[in-house]
Write a structure and sequence with these properties.
Elements (H helix, E strand, L loop, with lengths): L8 H20 L3 H28 L8
Amino acid sequence: MVERPQFRRRDYATGASVAALLVVAYVVYPDPIVQYGVWLVIFTIWMGWFVAFGVDWLYRESGDTQE
C-alpha cells in the first residue's frame, strides 16, 4: 500500500483559509446567511482539497518532492 503523502504548503494554506472563513462567519460578521454561505464555500474547498490529496496519494511518485 502506498504511504500517505506528507502535508505541503497547499494543505496548510487550505486549513488556514478555512479557519479564516470561520472567523469571519462567527466573529467578524455573525449572521446566519453569512455562516451558511461560508459553510458552502468550506465544503467546496474541502472537496477540492480531498480530490487533490487523493490524486497525490494514488499517483505521486514516492520520491517526488515537487510542488
